[in-house]
Each structure stands twice: as C-alpha cells, then as structure tokens.
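Subgroup meeting minutes
Present: P.N., E.W., G.H.
Scribe: E.W.

1. P.N. recapped why we're keeping a running log of single-chain structure predictions: easier to compare across weeks, and new members can see raw inputs and outputs side by side.
2. G.H. added today's entry (130 aa).
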Amino acid sequence: GFMTRHERKIFDDLKSPHLKYWVPFVWFGNLASKARKEGRIRDSVDLQTLMNEMNKYRSWCSLLFGYDWVGIPLVYTQVVTLAVYTFFFACLIGRQFLDTDQGYQGHDLDIYIPIFTLLQFFFYAGWLKV
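Output recorded in log:
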C-alpha cells in the first residue's frame, strides 16, 4: 500500500547485491525537491527540516542493516568457550565430597565420576556448539 504498482515494478527490477532499503529514500528526496520547485513546500527551511528528518531515519535503517551484515565477533565466541570450560573445571573441583571424618591425609580430592556435572558440561558444551 505504500507504493504504486509501477513503483513496485521499478523496485523489483532494480538489481542490487545488497538490500534496497535506500531506494524509497531517494524517491522521497526527489519528490520533496520537486514539491519545493512547484511551490507545494513554501520555504526552503521546511524542505531542509523534512530532508534532515528523512536522513536521520535513513541513517537508523543503515545502522540496522549494519548490525545484520556483521556477524558476532570471534572474541565473544572465545569468551563463552573459556567461560564454559572454566565453569566445568570449577565444578569438578568444587563439587568434590571431602569427608574429614574419614581421615584423608592432606584432605585430598575424592576420586569418583561426577555424573550430573558431566551431564551439565555436555549440555553446556552442546549448547555452545549450536
């Protein structure tokens, strides 16, 4: 409903390797300049205000396009990977059961298979890979 059929055909026929969000802004700028020449916009200050607002909106659209274009930096993936492995190591140490009544010499770590910690690690590592 924002474009006529003729405008839609021109828009669809335009070949561009990128998104075509900028085309309506060019059309708007041309129509606003034409309206100023025809006297529909009485003052150049009004035209400038109109064009400034349109440029502000276009810059927001290009910023949004930039966020879509650029992927998540590799550093974020590395930080999350480091956090998952550090968490797993801390869980292996922190979830050990030491019974001081048993008389362990030097309070060494118990050796057992931490099933739930392993399941939690596999879940987090799997989630990380996704």
